[in-house]
Amino acid sequence: MRKLLPTFSLAAALVVAMAAPAFAQRDPAYQAARQAGLVGEQPDGYLGIVGSPTAELQAMVNNINIQRKRQYTQQAAASSTVEQMAFVTGCNLIARTVAGEKYRAPDGRWLTRGGDAPVRDPRCL
Predict the structure, then answer these.
(1) pLDDT tens readout for residues 87-110
(2) Are 79 and 14 within 8 A, CB to CB?
(3) Fewer CB atoms inside 10 A, N or C side of the chain?
(4) Under a CB-based contact definition with an 8 Å cutoff, are residues 91 and 23 in contact?
(5) What pTM, to 2 d.p., does this model score?
């Protein structure tokens, strides 16, 4: 695990520098679903559906997750694995949720962000 920490640190820096612009361009359907608590961020770096999905919601989440995996794959090629990039990004995306938004805790429960910091995996930096 000690060997992974420098990789995670490098990956975290890469994610902050490179992923923020990509995730800042959110489509209105995604924003609406996020604000309504229908979707939330997961520790694995992918978007999840809270509750029962509609076909439209599932298609939107699948599309976003495909784009995220593509980005993780491109970023990981230089210094880490896709899974490491996804995990670090998941940590950062959960940290950036705002009050009222959903996220998945390390134990698998969907939580709604309050005024405090979200519950994150202890490996998150």
Answers:
(1) 999 999 999 999 999 999 999 999
(2) yes
(3) N
(4) no
(5) 0.67
Q: What are the CA-CA distances from residue 120 to residues 8, 15, 54, 87, 111 (Å)?
A: 15, 17, 28, 11, 11
Residue 97 neighbours by CB distance under 10 Å:
18
Q: What is the maximum alpha-carbon separation in the chain? A: 42
CB 88 within 8 A of CB 12: yes
| Cα separation, 53 vs 123, whole angstroms | 30
Would you state the pLDDT for residue 8?
A: 46
* Nearest C-alpha neighbor of 15 from the set 102, 78, 63, 101: 78
pLDDT value at 9 more than 50: no
